[in-house]
Amino acid sequence: MAATLEPNLSTLQTVELIDIPKISDPEGRGNLSVVEKNTLPFEVKRVYYLYDVPSDASRGGHAHKKLKQCLIAVSGSFDVVLHDGKDKKIIHLNKPNKGLIIPNGIWRELENFSSGSVCLALVSDVYEESDYIREFEEFKLFKRS
Predict the structure, then answer these.
(1) Which residue intervals define the domain Sugar 3,4-ketoisomerase QdtA cupin in the entry (predicted)?
(2) Range 106-134 burial, b when 16+ CB lie within 10 A, else e
(3) pLDDT in the model for residue 5
(4) In terms of C-beta distances under 8 Å and separation of at least 24 residues, what long-range contacts does 135-138 make, across chains too?
(5) Average pLDDT over residues 42-64
(6) Where are the domains of the chain?
(7) I need a surface site. Which of 5, 27, 49, 91 has the fewest CB within 10 A?
């Protein structure tokens, strides 16, 4: 897994909301957004999406040691609760042409899903359980190391 930051150096300031290129149809037939090789600050090695999440449920609840990801609300909306070990921030995603870049070493939880929402995740590596930190107390120790 490639990583450009040491995990304990990631802060909420390294989280970034980016514009996904949007092409509007001149005849009013809708929009098209494109993620190509230079859209994200990492190579995409895995894609997954969350859907049919009840509004009172939460997803995530973990951090990654090396993996980076971009979350996009391709339909509907949801909140991303981020924590860097010291500070907490909530980002509301509700536009399919906005992507939230979450570097490694940032705790994330997804909540407040609207009806019909779809969260697309573009990630920097394939699934590897050893990259996950699933307990918040362990995450805080990881950040201090």
Answers:
(1) 14-142
(2) bbbbbbbbeeebbbbbbbbbeeeeebebe
(3) 39
(4) 136/83, 136/107
(5) 95
(6) 7-144
(7) 27
Which pLDDT belongs to residue 2? 42
Give the per-residue pLDDT at 8.
62
Average pLDDT (43-56) is 95
Q: For this structure, is 64 an active site residue?
A: no
Number of helical H runs and strand E runs in the chain = 1, 12
Pairwise CA distance, residues 118 & 50, whole Å: 6
Q: Name the CATH topology of 7-144.
A: Jelly Rolls (2.60.120)
Within a 10 A sphere around the Cβ of 57, how many other Cβ atoms?
Answer: 12
- Catalytic residue (choose from 62, 64, 83, 92): 62
SS3 13: helix
Tell me how far apart the alpha carbons of residues 16 and 39 are, in angstroms, rounded to a whole number. Answer: 13
Q: 1 near 126, Cβ under 8 Å?
A: no
**Which residue from 87, 63, 69 is spatially nearest to 126, judged by alpha carbons?**
69
What stretch of H or E contains 140? helix 136-144
pTM of the full structure: 0.91
DSSP structural state of residue 115? T
